[in-house]
Specification:
This protein is of the alpha+beta class. The protein is built from 13 helices and twelve strands. Helix 1 crosses helix 2 and helix 4 packs across helix 5. The longest helix has 16 residues. It starts with a helix and ends in a 5-residue tail after the last helix. The C terminus is likely disordered.
């Protein structure tokens, strides 16, 4: 392996959490000028990944050792694979992704999404009729089946629900088709805006390991909105005080020219000395003005509901070194204008 491939493998590892061998295989398989972190090859794949990231951010009922409950990401042009931390997190993810509907209510989850394949340590989900797929792995088959069964326990009255993924495993239900026609019509202005900006959420999901490989993140949530024809994704992260690299390392990795996203820093608010433990806000956007990332970082103590055992496990996995020293908060402040409106 050449020195360049070795460097690219180690760099990719930071973004994906893969082993050295996995990262090497991915880099060795690159053709021409392909990116070390491939983009989703189709709008449908981008859209699915954007929905997956939102589910990971918005639907958090349990605490996990890793910020998103995802330990490893395997990004491929025509799909993505996520290693799930635990059965409990797997159940939570499936509950919020697999489509279901109560009478006179909107479809919850991703319309048309089904479990299409089962493996010894993984399941594959696909939007029926579309080239969009997601593989969840990291648990034995019996735990995946247990996670599926656990999703039913989350409903107060599952018998009153139409569980589309169970009642119609090989085709879209009528309620899913109606929901898709109403809320995801290609001629709808909001749908067009969110589809145009889906690259941001998709790209972040493909680089999700950065949250725990280069920064001292222990919790994260967020939400998405759209205004003035621009998608805005808000991430709110909690960071360990005085241990491990601070949140600016995550931003430095995102704007890296080799493995990062096509983002530029537009605004920074906060203290350039992270040792004071004060909040920071980083606002980034693309040149085409299709999407904005609003990253809000806070140095916090662990929540009272987070068990001491889990907190110690989180502290043990906090990285010792960050991404780079070339883009410190002080440099960010000078680039963006400290406290600029």
């Amino acid at each position: 392996m050449s020195a360049l491939h070795q460097d690219l493998s180690l760099l990719r590892r930071l973004y994906t959490g893969e082993s050295v061998q996995q990262a090497r295989r991915a880099i060795d398989g690159l053709q021409g000028d392909e990116s070390p972190i491939p983009e989703a090859a189709s709008p449908a794949q981008q859209h699915l990944e954007a929905r997956v990231l939102l589910a990971l951010l918005e639907c958090r009922d349990i605490y996990t050792r890793f910020p998103l409950g995802i330990t490893v990401v395997h990004p491929e042009p025509h799909g993505i694979a996520l290693a799930v931390e635990s059965k409990e997190r797997a159940s939570e993810i499936l509950f919020h992704l697999l489509p279901s509907c109560a009478s006179d209510e909107e479809v919850q989850g991703v319309p048309g999404l089904r479990i299409t394949r089962r493996y010894r340590t993984a399941i594959e989900l696909q939007v029926l009729g579309e080239p969009a797929r997601l593989r969840l792995f990291g648990l034995p088959a019996r735990l995946w089946r247990s996670a599926e069964a656990s999703t039913l326990d989350k409903w107060i009255d599952p018998d009153s629900m139409q569980l589309c993924w169970r009642s119609s495993p090989r085709s879209w239900t009528q309620v899913e088709r109606e929901h898709h026609a109403q809320w995801e019509d290609d001629n709808d202005r909001y749908a067009q805006v969110t589809q145009r900006g889906a690259w941001l959420s998709s790209g972040l999901l493909r680089r999700a390991a950065l949250l725990h490989t280069v920064a001292n993140t222990f919790l994260i949530d967020g939400f998405r909105g759209a205004a003035f024809d621009v998608v805005r994704l808000v991430l709110r992260s909690s960071h360990v005080h005085e241990q491990g690299p601070g949140p600016h390392n995550f931003i430095a990795a995102l704007v890296d020219p080799v493995c990062g996203l096509p983002l530029v820093l537009k605004r920074f608010r906060g203290d350039t000395d992270e040792s004071y433990g004060r909040d920071q806000q980083f606002v980034l956007g693309d040149v085409g003005n299709t999407a904005v990332l609003d990253f809000r970082a806070a140095i916090e103590r662990p929540p009272s509901r987070l068990t001491p055992e889990l907190w110690q496990a989180i502290l043990r996995r906090v990285p010792q070194t960050g991404f780079t020293s070339s883009l410190s908060p002080g440099v960010i402040a000078r680039l963006c204008g400290l406290g600029a409106p």
